[in-house]
């Protein structure tokens, strides 16, 4: 069993790193300040948090990063609009603030919808690939099954052929032995006794 390093990053550590970093991106803060905050929360250095973010965590949250950047940009625009509207009447300023809040909320909803659509598209594509791979695996297993059956048939037929050849060889040897015995029997000299009691050879 592989031992787990004491300083290994956990899923909770990665989640905290992602949440804090995305918040700093959305609010216009720096990543360094985010890494420092995370380091204080989980007991690591800011450098370690930065390395973990860039090497592993960032690639999992690309879509969320784009949303956070879009929210920051929109928020900055609203702040500029709000700042200029402060020169007008207080009533108009309140109305502009409400309009800015509504616009920001709408922007956030649009960003979330885009993110969910991207995620849904990625999920459906991965699901399609999984089904395709499962079908390919099933086809390969069926092909392997047929090859095994053919191999077993060939093994059985091969054994039968060897047995048949051995039987033919035995029969051939028996036939030759019988022929030689018959030939030897015919070649033995034959004798008969004449009237005087003498043996004479019969040709």
Explain this structure.
- The model has no long low-confidence stretch (mean pLDDT 76).
- The chain is mainly α and 203 residues long.
- It starts with 10 loop residues before the first helix and ends with a strand.
- The protein has a domain at 11-136.
- A two-stranded antiparallel sheet has the order 1-2.
- It has helices at 11-27, 31-42, 46-57, 62-85, 90-187; strands spanning 190-193, 199-202.
- Helix 1 runs antiparallel to helix 2, helix 1 runs parallel beside helix 4 and helix 4 (62-85) runs antiparallel to helix 5.
- A hairpin with a 5-residue loop joins strand 1 (190-193) and strand 2.
- The longest helix is centred in the C-terminal third of the chain and has 98 residues, at 90-187.
- Residues 116-157 form a coiled coil.
Please outline what is shown here.
It comes from Xylanibacillus composti. The protein contains 5 helices and 2 strands; from the N terminus they run αααααββ.
Largest sheet: 2 strands, antiparallel
Portion of residues in helices?
Answer: over 70%
Mean pLDDT score, rounded?
Answer: 76
Instruction: Provide the structure class.
Output: mainly alpha
Q: Tell the overall outline.
A: rod-shaped
Counting DSSP E segments of at least 2 residues, the number of strands comes to 2
Order of helices and strands: HHHHHEE
Give the strand content: under 5%
Sequence stretches where pLDDT stays below 50 over 5 or more residues: none
Count of helical regions: 5
Radius of gyration: 47 Å
> Span between N and C termini?
96 Å
Q: Going across the major beta sheet, what is the strand order? A: 1-2
């Amino acid at each position: 069993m592989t031992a787990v390093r004491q300083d290994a990053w956990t899923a909770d550590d990665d989640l905290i790193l992602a949440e804090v970093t995305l918040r700093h991106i959305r609010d216009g803060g720096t990543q360094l300040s985010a890494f420092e905050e995370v380091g204080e929360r989980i007991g690591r250095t800011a450098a370690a948090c930065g390395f973990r973010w860039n090497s592993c965590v960032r690639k999992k949250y690309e879509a969320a990063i784009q949303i956070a950047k879009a929210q920051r940009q929109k928020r900055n625009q609203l702040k500029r609009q709000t700042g200029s509207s402060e020169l007008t009447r207080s009533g108009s300023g309140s109305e502009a603030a409400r309009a800015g809040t509504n616009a920001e909320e709408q922007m956030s909803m649009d960003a979330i919808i885009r993110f969910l659509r991207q995620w849904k598209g990625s999920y459906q594509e991965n699901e399609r690939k999984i089904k395709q791979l499962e079908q390919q695996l099933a086809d390969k297993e069926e092909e392997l099954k047929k090859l095994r059956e053919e191999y077993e048939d060939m093994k059985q037929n091969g054994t039968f052929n060897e047995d048949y050849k051995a039987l033919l060889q035995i029969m051939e040897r028996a036939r030759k032995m019988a022929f030689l015995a018959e030939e030897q029997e015919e070649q033995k000299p034959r004798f008969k006794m004449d009237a005087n009691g003498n043996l004479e050879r019969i040709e």
